[in-house]
Amino acid sequence: MHQTAEAILLNRNEVELLAKELGQDSLMGLSLNTMVNDTLNYMSSPIEIPGHGEAGGYEHNKHKLNYQYINQAGRLFLITGEERYAEYAAQLLLGYADVYLTLDYHIQRNTNPTGRLFHQILNEHVFLLYSSLGYSCISRYLSEEQRERIIEGLFRPLLEMSVVKYGHDFDRIHNHGLWAVAAVGICGLAIGEDKWMELSVHGLAGDDETGGFLAQIAKLFAPSGYYMEGPYYHRYAIRPLCLFAEVIGRHRPELDIFNYKDQVIGKTINAMLATAYPNGVFPALNDASLSMDICDAGVIVAVSLAYSHYGQNPLLLGVAKIQQKVWIHGCGLELSNAYQSEDKVELPLWPSVELNEGPNGDRGAQGFLRMQAKGGDISQLVMNYGQHGMGHGHFDTLGVSFFNRGQEVLKEYGFGRWVNVEPKFGGRYLDENKSYARQTIAHNLVSVDQGCQNQFDVATADAKHGTPHYFVGDDSKLQGMSAIADEFYPGVKQQRSLALINDELFDSPLLLDVYQLSSEEQHCYDYALQYQGQIIRTNFEYQSQSQLKTLGDDAGYQHLWNVASAEVDKERCSELSWLQGNSYYTWICSNQAGDEIIFTRSGANDPQFNLRSETSFILRREANSTVFANVLETHGYFNEAIEASTDARGQVKSVTVLANTEQACLISIAGDAFELLVMLSNLHGVPNDHQHTIEYNNTIYSWNGHLATQKIRG
């Protein structure tokens, strides 16, 4: 006879308090109202339990919806007391129990092991987690015979598949492994069998090292909390992490899970939120969607949990304002009550932050600079100088992305897949993810000799990481970061130094990019920027191609059309302006003899139209050692509806490398009415207050710290 248990994640007092929120206009009341309407709408259709189907197809999505509503109906049964919810969840669970073992395993189409319901075991674990949570809410409503059918026909086969057939996946230190241990542990509690919880917490070997939840959170996240696969997979991993942490906190309080590993759970929630753009969308670092944001279900759980367990951070109230939803749980109720008690909640302005990588924080970092313009708009600059990111890593160390005025300006391509679009290989990763999206040239950085960093070899890339040089993010007028990536191309050293400069002359901060490369041999350096919008003007003549040809044969170049090109004038800086949304952007670069600018568009050698058609421009230079110095200026306003356009031309006319020594680099940014000198450190390993000097034109410039500016005129 199986033991029945209380709901795993809700106690009686919480249920009573949540019930009082029904019909209220609080965040919790609104969240409950949404869940009630959504669940009743789904319940109005006949129950259907399909068989196999392609990834992203009808059957896949139906199984996904079914486990979602098993969980929702179970919770609503407790909160509303209405038996129709319990009966609905019960019928779904019983239906699955009757058919689960009659289904064969899916045919394996990629490296992921398959399940009986889904094309990969990961989805089966998500099914197990949510159906177990729903079951725990209605187990006392069920008869003993019904409980027996569900456990023996559905849960036990899933448990044994997870820890026996796919034991290697269960102990895998990976976001898939997090889902596995959380699902098995929660199911074990739901059916009253403690052994599954022990395996989930401590791993199959029971050593807290080779597997299990404690090993997962100790090894997956850096001391800063950053997750090496990037924000897209971080927000997916955060869901089982937070759900199982709350379960452990309630049912294994002796583990003190919220203080484990120096409060790594709280740190990783903050780190994830600190990566997001001001509009809440996550930058597409590594394999990632361009649209995933902080309204994701896992992030909603994480924000509520962090507010409850790690102090009442007002920034989390601002996040909740964007989400307009809380976790339907005691933690979410705390956040909702706090939000309701405030007269006004401001949108969150996260500070600039450098998030170290690796279990010990010594494998590079990700840098996030944020600066607020005088009108309140927030610019965010991101640079990757950390780890590769395992199987989802892109080959873009020192790559950047830039966001301001509500849009991504220097953009990421993201992953090469159409998630859950069944005709596109079932929504799985496409070949073009490897042949283009992960290649260096698809990002905002320099590609050497039309090749890819680390020869597109994952093992080589995993063994390397970027090296932080400096990070200065605590000034409202001048911020900067610099990093190094040596030998990512054989014999080539790279250093990229970025600065955001807030001056009263400009409505938005200037972005300065100084990219240094050095080698004993000559190379072809392609400085690439991915933009979106309409080219407005250039100060150089270019030739459009009457017949399109690809830019190369490999490393992503085979997917780029050479649309137009220009040999630029070494006597003056090149300017290129485009219109994106309501804003103008002008890129200004210092030229050298022989430089070429190439306009490209993705989509070549793509017979199945798997790639999006997107634009970039490349500054190509042949050299041994060189410095690319560039400025991106944001300016003006455009509104087609009212036929308004202001300041379509920027103020910056030139950017010049005046001097570059082992100590420092001296850059001039100038326009008709101003000149600004920017001084950047080239010294590695010096204190933050180190005094630097550099000589130019018989004048010695001195400053303390890694970077400084000096107004010459204007």
Structure description:
- This protein has three domains: 1-190, Alpha/alpha barrel (Glycosyltransferase); 221-350, Glycosyltransferase; 353-713, Beta-galactosidase, Chain A, domain 5 (Distorted Sandwich), CATH 2.70.98.
- The protein is an alpha+beta fold and 714 residues long.
- It contains 17 helices and 27 strands.
- The strands form six sheets. An eight-stranded antiparallel sheet has the order 7-8-9-10-19-16-15-12, with no helix packed on it. It has a six-stranded antiparallel sheet with strand order 6-11-18-17-14-13, with no helix packed on it. The chain has a five-stranded antiparallel sheet with strand order 1-2-3-4-5, covered by helices on one side.
- The relative contact order is 0.07.
- Helix 5 runs parallel beside helix 8 (175-190) and helix 11 (231-251) packs across helix 13.
- Residues 1-5 have low confidence and may be disordered.
- Strand 9 and strand 10 form a beta hairpin.
- Helix content is 32%, strand content 26%.
